[in-house]
């Protein structure tokens, strides 16, 4: 497969991943070029590649959104019909015990969403894609970035994935080799734990001296409720049940248009118990009387899951270099205290656009020139916002109770808190072994502790495969698995006894199954279930799972999420 | 005055396609019903052998058209050649099998002549000396009778399997060569090497009876007992995903969202829990029988008959009963 003749395509600027960061960046760049005065620029081509079947099919987020950057990018967004669900009309912050809901009498300032909007990011991106295309940006869906093309430390572009490779790795009749897309500047907006950014950061040591990234997993469903019951713009956030004190996270319920309710749970991926299962916790969350009551008589329509980068300021990699920039979630532009990243993603894309525009005018694309992006970020409001919450997530490393106290103190001290700037530990290192968590190392596969088998009623609660079905996920079955497990022996010889194969629990899409065989166990990878959340790549304790892009077009088909 | 039925013969790699004999059979039946002459046409280069093979069927005549332009199939070449054949032979009806090749050139041919084309028919009726063709509409939920109107010839293609090629009557037809004029202006297409189709898959969608096996079977060797039940019922054997993932049965026997979607008369689900991905592939079956040890398995929500119990006891008992009935 190495001697394949590949076509190459030259563009001026390439964005990888058609999310809010890239689309805002590409559009802003086009606007800046169109408004350019002085010595005319040559015709500038801007391309966006996207692994999903369509722009938007892999987009999922809460969300309560600060629409400032959208308004800045497209002042006439309302006339153009931007699909915002509703301005936030009603706010509820509650603490859940197993049976009760205790509503906070005041809205803590960080959770105050006054003036923000409930949106479906999925709908917003499906709307924004054509707007960006109409402005003169080429968007190529079904083209996943497979490799970064490098000349020592300089990024030359991206090689897209081959199409039509069989599960045996051999080309099929419909084989089409990937294309080398060469660009003056390549902008990585792959979202959280981007598969190219991960390798680029490693290769160029972009995370040197930074905290490791920490993550959360968000799992959610869209429900249709009887007419008139959902109040668009009503927002509820919960702490407590079903999460134990030592798990960071909480629930959310957002009212959308057309009787749709967005309900989900965010679970910090720095939990201790190796048997923790975010999807299962989410099902438990829905069983809470306060939530079950809201959902009664409704129907679950859609499901999705994604990881969220929560490390914040100190976990940001160096996000520029020779020939490249990193934007949005890929560069950890997310306020973990407010769990808001869309506005920062868009703004980081727009600041990247400004830096690229200046680079195009100067005709230089090296590290020194592109450092302008960092300067622009540092001078912007997103820098200030990130800096103020720089220690937020770290405060919760010792549990929720202490975290709430510490983060309160941080709020009062401009983010500093009592302990000064805090280090973070990667989630996969924090998870305990079975011996630490359950008192002993199992003697054999038969003694490995397992959570009791869940019972789901298929009305309020659903098993993973049913939820996966509701995510619309599809992959061509006849292709090599895109989840590379580097050494299966580790799974059965070490992981079973040390951690009890947590992959089968942390994956919210039933990709990983451990099948009993002749007294032992055998891992089975149902890669076609994968919803592209990257949790496995993040949480595997041995870091031997490498998530790579599957054949273009594969993955979820998110609607309304 | 146009008269007679002309059958288009498709061939590849020096062999007449099986589907073409289905069209020959249709022509024989229709010719007898309408009292019309039948003929067939073979296009290509060096097709005398193929023509002789076709001439061994009961047909009035077999036309051959030899041209270097027809060496490899192109829509341009076939449409242009058939247009000239039709002007010489003047048939009233041109019958074809609804193959990929026919789908490729027939619309061009019919539109070029401004004649009616009735595609993908499953049968015919002869009424008052004229033929009416039946085709399915609304994804097979309804059948419509279509009488082609306008000037002859009318073009008709039949769905594969609508007639039985092996029932084509033998005979001895006259072979006659026809000349056509083709050139680079008419044949603008340059064919590339033939696309290799994926390996032949089992078409479970046509099976009236299906016995499907799932994870409850536990081990590969146990599949034998389900295979026996399928054999006793004369049913096709199918499976849910885990069975095919383990390669205990080939992938083309998988039912569900990543396999085939079926709607047989009878579907017996053995040891299948009924994940939604499986249900969407079989819930259209007319009668569903489920055997599962878990009374809460979702398969029972769609089953007409549910048996809660150990499949290793139930399946052999069912097999024995089915065999008794057969005897």
Walkthrough of the structure:
Chain A is of the alpha+beta class. Helix content of chain A is 28%, strand content 24%. In chain A, helix 1 (20-34) runs parallel beside helix 3 and helix 1 runs parallel beside helix 7 (342-362). The longest helix of chain A is centred in the middle third of the chain and has 21 residues, at 342-362. The model of chain A has no long low-confidence stretch (mean pLDDT 93). Chain B has nine helices and 16 strands. Chain B is of the alpha/beta class and 327 residues long. The radius of gyration of chain B is 25 Å and the shape is elongated. Helices cover 30% and strands 26% of the residues of chain B. The longest helix of chain B is centred in the N-terminal third of the chain and has 17 residues, at 18-34. Chain B folds into two domains: 5-178, HUPs (Rossmann fold); 204-326, 3-Layer(aba) Sandwich (Rossmann fold), CATH 3.40.50.1220. Chain B has a nine-stranded mixed sheet, sandwiched between helices. In chain B, strands 13-12-14-15-16 form a five-stranded parallel sheet. Classes of the chains: A alpha+beta (561), B alpha/beta (327).
Q: What oligomeric state do these chains adopt?
A: heterodimer
Beta content of chain B: 25-35%
The name CATH uses for the topology of the largest domain in chain B is Rossmann fold
Structural class of chain A: alpha+beta
CATH architecture of the largest domain in chain B: 3-Layer(aba) Sandwich
Strand order of the largest sheet of chain B: 9-8-7-10-6-1-4-5-11
Q: How many domain regions of chain B?
A: 2
Which structural class matches the secondary elements of chain B? alpha/beta
Mass-distribution shape of chain A: globular
Instruction: Calculate Rg of chain A over CA atoms.
Output: 23 Å
Low-confidence stretches of chain B: none
CATH classification, class level of the domain at 8-68 and 126-211 and 313-388 in chain A: Alpha Beta
> Can you tell me the CATH topology of the domain at 8-68 and 126-211 and 313-388 in chain A?
FAD/NAD(P)-binding domain
Average per-residue pLDDT of chain B, rounded, comes to: 92
User: Segments of chain A where pLDDT lies below 50 for 5+ residues?
Assistant: none
Give the rounded overall mean pLDDT of chain A: 93
């Amino acid at each position: 497969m190495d001697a394949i003749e590949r076509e190459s395509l030259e563009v001026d600027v390439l964005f990888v991943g058609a999310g809010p960061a890239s689309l805002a960046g590409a559009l802003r760049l086009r606007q800046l070029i169109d408004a350019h005065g002085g010595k005319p620029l040559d015709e500038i081509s801007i391309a966006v590649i996207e692994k999903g079947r369509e722009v938007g099919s892999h987009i999922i987020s809460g969300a309560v959104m600060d629409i400032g950057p959208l308004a800045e990018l497209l002042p006439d967004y309302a006339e153009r019909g931007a699909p915002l669900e509703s301005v936030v009309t009603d706010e509820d912050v509650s603490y859940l015990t197993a049976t009760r809901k205790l509503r906070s009498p005041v809205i803590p300032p960080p959770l105050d969403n006054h003036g923000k909007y409930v949106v479906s990011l999925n709908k917003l991106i499906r709307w924004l894609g054509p707007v960006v295309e109409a402005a003169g940006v080429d968007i190529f869906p079904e083209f996943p970035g497979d490799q970064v093309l490098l000349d020592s430390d300089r990024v030359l572009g991206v090689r897209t994935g081959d199409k039509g490779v069989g599960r045996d790795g051999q080309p099929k009749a419909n084989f089409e080799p990937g294309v080398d897309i060469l660009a003056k500047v390549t902008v990585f907006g792959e979202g959280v734990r981007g598969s190219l950014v991960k390798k680029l950061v490693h290769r160029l040591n972009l995370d040197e001296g930074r905290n490791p990234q920490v993550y959360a997993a968000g799992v959610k469903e869209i429900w249709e409720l009887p007419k008139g019951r959902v109040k668009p713009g009503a927002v509820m956030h919960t702490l407590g049940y079903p999460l134990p004190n030592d798990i960071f996270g909480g629930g959310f319920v957002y009212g959308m248009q057309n009787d749709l309710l967005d309900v989900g749970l965010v679970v910090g991926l720095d939990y201790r118990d190796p048997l923790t299962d975010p999807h299962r916790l989410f099902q438990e969350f829905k069983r809470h009387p306060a939530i079950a009551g809201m959902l009664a008589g409704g129907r679950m329509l859609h499901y999705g899951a994604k990881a969220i980068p929560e490390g914040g300021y100190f976990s940001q990699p160096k996000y520029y270099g020779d020939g490249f920039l990193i934007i949005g979630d890929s560069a950890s532009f997310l306020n973990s205290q407010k769990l808001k990243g869309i506005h920062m993603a868009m703004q980081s894309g727009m600041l990247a656009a400004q830096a690229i525009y200046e680079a195009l005018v100067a005709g230089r694309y090296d590290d020194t020139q592109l450092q302008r992006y960092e300067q622009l970020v540092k001078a912007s409001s997103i820098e200030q916002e990130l800096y103020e919450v720089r220690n937020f997530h770290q405060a919760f490393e010792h549990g929720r109770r202490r975290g709430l106290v510490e983060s309160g103190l941080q709020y009062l001290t401009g983010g500093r808190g009592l302990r000064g700037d805090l280090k973070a530990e990667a989630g996969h290192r924090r998870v305990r072994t079975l011996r630490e968590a359950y008192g002993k190392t199992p003697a054999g596969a038969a003694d490995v502790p397992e959570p009791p088998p869940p019972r789901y009623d298929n009305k309020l609660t659903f098993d993973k495969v049913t939820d996966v079905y509701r995510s619309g996920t599809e992959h061509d079955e006849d292709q090599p698995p895109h989840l590379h497990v580097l050494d299966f022996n580790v799974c059965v010889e070490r992981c079973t006894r040390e951690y009890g194969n947590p992959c089968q629990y942390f994956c919210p899409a039933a990709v990983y199954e451990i099948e009993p065989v002749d007294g032992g166990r055998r891992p089975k990878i149902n890669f076609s279930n994968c919803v592209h959340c990257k949790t496995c790549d993040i949480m595997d304790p041995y870091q031997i799972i490498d998530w790579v892009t599957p054949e273009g077009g594969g993955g979820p088909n998110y609607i309304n999420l | 005055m146009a008269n007679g039925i002309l059958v288009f013969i498709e061939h590849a790699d020096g062999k007449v396609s099986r589907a073409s004999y289905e069209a020959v059979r249709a022509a024989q039946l229709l010719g007898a019903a309408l009292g019309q002459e039948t003929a067939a046409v073979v296009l290509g280069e060096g097709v005398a052998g193929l023509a002789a093979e076709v001439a061994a069927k009961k047909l009035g005549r077999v036309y051959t058209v030899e041209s270097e332009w027809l060496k490899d199939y192109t829509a341009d070449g076939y449409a242009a050649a058939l247009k000239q054949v039709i002007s010489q032979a003047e048939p009233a009806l041109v019958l074809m099998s609804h193959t990929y090749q026919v789908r490729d050139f027939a619309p061009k041919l019919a539109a070029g002549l401004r004649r009616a084309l009735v595609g993908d028919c499953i049968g015919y009726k002869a009424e008052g000396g004229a033929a009416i063709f039946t085709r399915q509409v609304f994804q097979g939920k309804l059948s419509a009778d279509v009488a082609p109107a306008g000037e002859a010839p009318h073009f008709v293609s039949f769905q594969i399997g609508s007639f039985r090629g092996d029932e084509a009557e033998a005979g001895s037809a006259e072979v006659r060569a026809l000349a056509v004029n083709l050139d680079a202006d008419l044949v603008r297409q340059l064919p590339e090497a033939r696309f290799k189709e994926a390996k032949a898959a089992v078409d479970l969608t046509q099976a009236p009876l299906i016995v499907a096996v799932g994870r409850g079977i536990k081990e590969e060797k146990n599949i034998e007992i389900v295979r026996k039940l399928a054999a006793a019922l004369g049913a096709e054997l199918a499976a849910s995903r885990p069975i095919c993932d383990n390669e205990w049965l080939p992938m083309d026997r998988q039912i569900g969202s990543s396999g085939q979607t079926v709607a047989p008369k009878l579907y017996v689900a053995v040891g299948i829990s009924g994940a939604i991905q499986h249900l969407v592939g079989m819930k259209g079956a007319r009668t569903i029988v489920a055997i599962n040890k878990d009374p809460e398995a979702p398969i029972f929500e769609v089953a007409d008959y549910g048996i809660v119990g150990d499949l290793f006891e139930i399946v052999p008992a069912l097999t024995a009963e089915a065999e008794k009935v057969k005897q």
